[in-house]
From TrEMBL:
Binding site for ATP: G12, S13, G14, K15, G16, T17, R129, R172
Species of the source: Caenorhabditis remanei (Caenorhabditis vulgaris)
GO cellular component: cytoplasm; nucleus
Cofactor(s) the record lists: Mg(2+)
Any one GO molecular function term: ATP binding
Protein name per its UniProtKB record: UMP-CMP kinase
Pfam families to which the protein is assigned, alphabetical: ADK
Domain notes from UniProt: Consists of three domains, a large central CORE domain and two small peripheral domains, NMPbind and LID, which undergo movements during catalysis. The LID domain closes over the site of phosphoryl transfer upon ATP binding. Assembling and dissambling the active center during each catalytic cycle provides an effective means to prevent ATP hydrolysis.
Catalytic activity: dCMP + ATP = dCDP + ADP; UMP + ATP = UDP + ADP; CMP + ATP = CDP + ADP
Length: 191
Protein backbone atom coordinates (compact mmCIF):
# COMPACT_ATOMS: atom_id res chain seq x y z
CA UNK A 1 0.00 0.00 0.00
CA UNK A 2 1.40 3.39 -1.02
CA UNK A 3 1.34 6.15 1.58
CA UNK A 4 0.51 9.46 -0.12
CA UNK A 5 0.55 13.16 0.76
CA UNK A 6 -1.20 15.37 -1.79
CA UNK A 7 0.46 18.78 -2.15
CA UNK A 8 -1.84 21.50 -3.47
CA UNK A 9 -1.85 25.27 -3.84
CA UNK A 10 -1.99 27.87 -6.61
CA UNK A 11 0.61 27.86 -9.40
CA UNK A 12 3.75 29.44 -7.96
CA UNK A 13 2.81 28.79 -4.33
CA UNK A 14 6.06 26.84 -3.89
CA UNK A 15 4.88 23.24 -4.13
CA UNK A 16 7.91 22.01 -6.07
CA UNK A 17 10.38 23.98 -3.94
CA UNK A 18 9.00 22.67 -0.64
CA UNK A 19 8.62 19.10 -1.94
CA UNK A 20 12.32 19.02 -2.88
CA UNK A 21 13.24 19.96 0.66
CA UNK A 22 10.91 17.34 2.16
CA UNK A 23 12.34 14.70 -0.19
CA UNK A 24 15.88 15.64 0.83
CA UNK A 25 15.22 15.44 4.56
CA UNK A 26 12.19 13.31 5.40
CA UNK A 27 12.44 10.16 3.26
CA UNK A 28 9.42 10.94 1.07
CA UNK A 29 9.65 10.64 -2.72
CA UNK A 30 8.57 13.72 -4.69
CA UNK A 31 6.32 13.07 -7.70
CA UNK A 32 5.17 16.20 -9.53
CA UNK A 33 2.18 15.55 -11.78
CA UNK A 34 3.23 18.53 -13.93
CA UNK A 35 6.82 17.22 -14.27
CA UNK A 36 5.55 13.75 -15.20
CA UNK A 37 3.23 15.25 -17.83
CA UNK A 38 6.04 17.41 -19.26
CA UNK A 39 8.29 14.33 -19.48
CA UNK A 40 5.54 12.33 -21.21
CA UNK A 41 5.02 15.25 -23.62
CA UNK A 42 8.73 14.99 -24.61
CA UNK A 43 8.87 11.19 -24.72
CA UNK A 44 9.65 9.77 -28.13
CA UNK A 45 6.64 7.76 -29.34
CA UNK A 46 4.16 9.14 -26.82
CA UNK A 47 0.67 9.34 -28.28
CA UNK A 48 -0.28 12.06 -25.81
CA UNK A 49 2.34 14.75 -26.52
CA UNK A 50 0.11 17.16 -28.43
CA UNK A 51 -2.85 16.68 -26.09
CA UNK A 52 -0.71 17.35 -23.02
CA UNK A 53 0.85 20.47 -24.54
CA UNK A 54 -2.52 21.91 -25.44
CA UNK A 55 -3.80 21.47 -21.86
CA UNK A 56 -0.61 22.90 -20.36
CA UNK A 57 -0.75 26.02 -22.52
CA UNK A 58 -4.46 26.49 -21.88
CA UNK A 59 -4.14 25.93 -18.16
CA UNK A 60 -6.74 23.18 -18.36
CA UNK A 61 -6.40 19.74 -16.81
CA UNK A 62 -5.24 16.64 -18.68
CA UNK A 63 -7.66 13.64 -18.47
CA UNK A 64 -6.98 11.65 -15.31
CA UNK A 65 -6.33 8.32 -17.05
CA UNK A 66 -3.08 9.76 -18.39
CA UNK A 67 -1.92 11.55 -15.24
CA UNK A 68 -2.90 8.87 -12.75
CA UNK A 69 -1.15 6.14 -14.76
CA UNK A 70 2.03 8.23 -14.84
CA UNK A 71 1.78 8.64 -11.06
CA UNK A 72 1.06 4.95 -10.42
CA UNK A 73 3.92 3.82 -12.67
CA UNK A 74 6.31 6.20 -10.91
CA UNK A 75 5.22 4.95 -7.49
CA UNK A 76 5.64 1.32 -8.52
CA UNK A 77 9.07 2.04 -9.99
CA UNK A 78 10.28 3.79 -6.86
CA UNK A 79 12.21 2.11 -4.07
CA UNK A 80 11.20 2.05 -0.42
CA UNK A 81 10.19 5.33 1.21
CA UNK A 82 8.00 6.60 3.99
CA UNK A 83 5.59 7.84 1.35
CA UNK A 84 5.04 9.86 -1.78
CA UNK A 85 4.54 13.59 -2.18
CA UNK A 86 2.03 13.82 -4.99
CA UNK A 87 2.54 17.44 -6.08
CA UNK A 88 -0.17 19.19 -8.11
CA UNK A 89 -2.76 16.41 -8.02
CA UNK A 90 -5.77 15.99 -7.74
CA UNK A 91 -6.53 19.30 -9.44
CA UNK A 92 -10.18 18.77 -10.38
CA UNK A 93 -13.14 16.46 -9.89
CA UNK A 94 -12.03 14.22 -12.78
CA UNK A 95 -8.58 13.81 -11.14
CA UNK A 96 -10.17 12.96 -7.81
CA UNK A 97 -12.70 10.45 -9.16
CA UNK A 98 -10.10 8.81 -11.40
CA UNK A 99 -7.65 8.48 -8.53
CA UNK A 100 -10.30 6.94 -6.27
CA UNK A 101 -11.20 4.44 -8.97
CA UNK A 102 -7.67 3.53 -10.04
CA UNK A 103 -5.92 3.59 -6.66
CA UNK A 104 -8.54 2.05 -4.38
CA UNK A 105 -6.80 -0.52 -2.21
CA UNK A 106 -3.39 0.55 -3.55
CA UNK A 107 -2.84 3.91 -1.84
CA UNK A 108 -3.88 5.69 1.31
CA UNK A 109 -3.94 9.49 1.61
CA UNK A 110 -2.13 10.50 4.80
CA UNK A 111 -3.07 14.19 4.54
CA UNK A 112 -3.21 17.12 2.11
CA UNK A 113 -0.53 19.80 2.40
CA UNK A 114 -2.10 23.07 1.25
CA UNK A 115 0.35 25.87 0.47
CA UNK A 116 -1.79 28.99 0.52
CA UNK A 117 -0.56 32.19 -1.06
CA UNK A 118 -2.13 35.35 -2.55
CA UNK A 119 -2.54 34.93 -6.28
CA UNK A 120 -0.74 38.18 -7.22
CA UNK A 121 2.44 36.91 -5.53
CA UNK A 122 2.07 33.49 -7.15
CA UNK A 123 1.82 35.07 -10.60
CA UNK A 124 4.95 37.17 -10.02
CA UNK A 125 6.84 34.08 -8.93
CA UNK A 126 5.80 32.15 -12.05
CA UNK A 127 6.74 35.03 -14.34
CA UNK A 128 10.18 35.07 -12.72
CA UNK A 129 10.62 31.30 -12.46
CA UNK A 130 13.02 31.22 -15.39
CA UNK A 131 12.41 27.59 -16.37
CA UNK A 132 11.35 28.44 -19.91
CA UNK A 133 7.94 26.87 -19.43
CA UNK A 134 5.39 27.40 -22.21
CA UNK A 135 2.76 28.25 -19.58
CA UNK A 136 4.65 30.83 -17.47
CA UNK A 137 3.26 33.81 -19.40
CA UNK A 138 0.47 36.26 -18.54
CA UNK A 139 -2.09 34.67 -20.85
CA UNK A 140 -1.63 31.06 -19.68
CA UNK A 141 -1.33 32.17 -16.06
CA UNK A 142 -4.69 33.89 -16.20
CA UNK A 143 -6.28 30.60 -17.24
CA UNK A 144 -4.28 28.56 -14.73
CA UNK A 145 -5.45 30.79 -11.89
CA UNK A 146 -9.02 30.50 -13.12
CA UNK A 147 -8.69 26.70 -13.18
CA UNK A 148 -7.22 26.79 -9.68
CA UNK A 149 -10.05 28.95 -8.29
CA UNK A 150 -12.91 27.09 -9.95
CA UNK A 151 -11.67 23.51 -10.07
CA UNK A 152 -8.80 22.92 -7.65
CA UNK A 153 -9.89 24.98 -4.65
CA UNK A 154 -13.16 22.99 -4.39
CA UNK A 155 -11.07 19.80 -4.16
CA UNK A 156 -9.17 21.30 -1.22
CA UNK A 157 -12.52 22.16 0.40
CA UNK A 158 -13.64 18.58 -0.18
CA UNK A 159 -10.62 17.25 1.76
CA UNK A 160 -11.12 19.93 4.41
CA UNK A 161 -14.49 18.35 5.22
CA UNK A 162 -12.71 15.09 6.05
CA UNK A 163 -10.21 16.93 8.28
CA UNK A 164 -7.32 16.02 6.01
CA UNK A 165 -6.03 19.50 5.11
CA UNK A 166 -2.91 20.97 6.70
CA UNK A 167 -2.59 24.58 5.56
CA UNK A 168 0.77 26.33 5.58
CA UNK A 169 0.97 29.95 4.47
CA UNK A 170 3.59 30.25 1.75
CA UNK A 171 3.89 34.03 1.39
CA UNK A 172 7.01 33.80 3.55
CA UNK A 173 10.63 32.75 3.31
CA UNK A 174 11.30 29.16 2.31
CA UNK A 175 12.90 28.49 5.72
CA UNK A 176 9.83 29.74 7.60
CA UNK A 177 7.48 27.68 5.45
CA UNK A 178 9.63 24.59 5.73
CA UNK A 179 9.80 24.84 9.55
CA UNK A 180 5.98 24.65 9.69
CA UNK A 181 5.91 21.87 7.11
CA UNK A 182 8.30 19.73 9.16
CA UNK A 183 5.99 20.10 12.16
CA UNK A 184 3.04 18.97 10.05
CA UNK A 185 4.92 15.84 8.91
CA UNK A 186 6.19 15.05 12.41
CA UNK A 187 2.69 15.34 13.85
CA UNK A 188 1.20 13.17 11.10
CA UNK A 189 3.82 10.45 11.53
CA UNK A 190 3.25 10.32 15.30
CA UNK A 191 -0.46 9.58 14.88
N1 LIG B 1 8.80 31.10 -0.31
C1 LIG B 1 9.22 31.56 -1.47
N2 LIG B 1 9.58 32.86 -1.58
C2 LIG B 1 9.98 33.36 -2.77
N3 LIG B 1 10.08 32.66 -3.91
C3 LIG B 1 9.72 31.36 -3.87
C4 LIG B 1 9.28 30.75 -2.65
N4 LIG B 1 8.99 29.45 -2.91
C5 LIG B 1 9.25 29.26 -4.23
N5 LIG B 1 9.70 30.39 -4.81
C6 LIG B 1 10.05 30.59 -6.23
O1 LIG B 1 8.81 30.77 -6.91
C7 LIG B 1 8.79 30.05 -8.14
C8 LIG B 1 7.68 29.00 -8.11
O2 LIG B 1 8.00 28.01 -7.15
P1 LIG B 1 7.62 26.48 -7.42
O3 LIG B 1 8.20 25.69 -6.30
O4 LIG B 1 8.00 26.09 -8.80
O5 LIG B 1 6.01 26.56 -7.24
P2 LIG B 1 4.84 25.64 -7.75
O6 LIG B 1 5.39 24.25 -7.94
O7 LIG B 1 3.79 25.69 -6.68
O8 LIG B 1 4.36 26.25 -9.03
C9 LIG B 1 10.20 29.45 -8.28
O9 LIG B 1 10.99 30.31 -9.06
C10 LIG B 1 10.71 29.38 -6.85
O10 LIG B 1 12.11 29.48 -6.80
N1 LIG C 1 -2.91 16.99 -12.15
C1 LIG C 1 -2.42 17.76 -13.13
C2 LIG C 1 -1.25 18.55 -12.92
C3 LIG C 1 -0.80 19.36 -13.94
N2 LIG C 1 -1.47 19.40 -15.11
C4 LIG C 1 -1.02 20.28 -16.22
C5 LIG C 1 -1.89 21.55 -16.24
C6 LIG C 1 -1.08 22.48 -15.37
O1 LIG C 1 -1.41 23.84 -15.60
C7 LIG C 1 0.33 22.14 -15.86
C8 LIG C 1 1.45 22.53 -14.95
O2 LIG C 1 1.29 21.91 -13.69
P1 LIG C 1 2.39 22.12 -12.57
O3 LIG C 1 1.93 21.39 -11.34
O4 LIG C 1 3.72 21.78 -13.08
O5 LIG C 1 2.30 23.70 -12.33
P2 LIG C 1 2.65 24.54 -11.03
O6 LIG C 1 3.75 23.81 -10.34
O7 LIG C 1 1.41 24.60 -10.17
O8 LIG C 1 3.06 25.87 -11.52
O9 LIG C 1 0.30 20.72 -16.03
C9 LIG C 1 -2.61 18.63 -15.31
O10 LIG C 1 -3.22 18.70 -16.37
N3 LIG C 1 -3.06 17.82 -14.31
MG1 LIG D 1 5.37 22.96 -9.57
Amino acid sequence: MHNVVFVLGPPGSGKGTICSKIQENLNYVHLSAGDLLRAERQREGSEYGALIESHIKNGSIVPVEITCSLLENAMNASGDAKGFLVDGFPRNEDNLQGWNKQMEGKAVVQFVLFLSCPVSICIDRCLNRGQGRTDDNEESLKKRVETYNHQTYPIIEHFEKSGLVREVKSERSIDEIYADVVNVFNAANKE
